Amino acid sequence: MSAEKDGAGQAGAEKDGAGRTARTWVGPTAPQRLGILRRTRSVAIVGASTNPSRASYFVATYLLSSSPYDVYFVNPRATEILGQPAYASLADLPVVPDVVDVFRRHDDLPGVAREAVEVGAKTLWLQLGSWNEEAAAIAEEGGLDVVMDRCLKIEHARFHGGLHLAGFDTGEITSKKQRLAR
């Protein structure tokens, strides 16, 4: 196997049968994720966007309206997001965030992990679709909990009965199309 970086950006990583980087890191269980969320008081969203069609905007809107967390935005190109100040980096925040929720490109994740360790955050949370074992190793070696490939909004809502807020929980478990009563 070559030490070149593969499509996932990891040098020399094992590949599965489909040519994807094999996942070897094991994340926290559901009860452990719930514990992280219960201990959390502040969340910094790295890669927060001013664009309402972006996932980070949707998550930020949910966290501001439906969670008890103090939410901070990190985006060096924005000055304000959802009426709150945006900061250029984690180091510029007025608090040390408990959770660093990351919406950044794969190659940026190890750097964000280093920054989270440097500021003293407690958890590095990589959103759905984000998996970077190098970033996880950096964060864990720095004493942080790590969650990857999970949405903070979905996890919070699922543990606190709010999945219906975005239409995820209809209360009906079926694969059949519902018919309207006549």
From TrEMBL:
Residues 1-25 are annotated as: Disordered. Signal peptide: none annotated. Residues 1-18 have a biased composition (Basic and acidic residues). It comes from the Bacteria. Residues 36-130 form the CoA-binding domain. SMART domains: CoA_binding (SM00881). InterPro entries: CoA-bd, NAD(P)-bd_dom_sf. This is CoA-binding protein. It comes from Brachybacterium kimchii.
